[in-house]
User: What shape does this take?
Amino acid sequence: MTDPDVREEIMAATYEVLCEHGYTELTARDIADRTDKSKSRLFYHYDSTDALIADFVDFLLEEFERRVAAADDRPPVERLATFVDSYLYEPSSDASFHTALLELRAHASRDERYRKRFAESDDRLRTILEEILRDGQAAGQFREHDPGRIAALLLAALDGALVRKLTVGRDSYPDEVRAATSELVLEEVLADDVVFPAKRNVTPIAGFEGTDRTAPESDRAAESRRHE
Assistant: This one.
């Protein structure tokens, strides 16, 4: 198991290289040059570049889960908003990074290792979303519905917003899809006295450059307490 601090350093370097070169031009040398390790030392932790990138996909999902879990003590509708906004607006505002991830997803159709990672990520994301929706039903914040179907629809809408933002260059897509999801989908799911929260800024992945690091004061205070 790679030391967490070492892993975070390597993941941050991988992020920088993906932003600069994209997935297709990424090399282990480029990643090593952004750490205090040689290429050979890098492969002490990962037996190949593909293994490193596969772990990077896992790392992104773990960080996403951490941000969503930070809202576990909030009402289900706020947890749902945290999920939606973390998905649409994180881990980075850097379009080049999201483009690299899109390249990686395309490569997954031909690479079993990456396809398995993305399939596992999709399963875990859907499980998290279904749990939030079920908790909302139990709390009386959401009407009776099929959490599996709603979760599948929400993930497809969120994915589509990001893909279209990148492929057609329309930065407004995430905001438009968020608003439409709230008005056309969640309007049928939320109880009459429940309102979907306005867009929130969420905490970015530590060590990643080019991110919007603003967050509500309550979130920053909670983040500080977790590290005390």
In short: Residues 209-228 have pLDDT under 50 and may be disordered. The domain at 4-192 is CATH 1.10.357.10 (Tetracycline Repressor; domain 2). The radius of gyration is 18 Å.
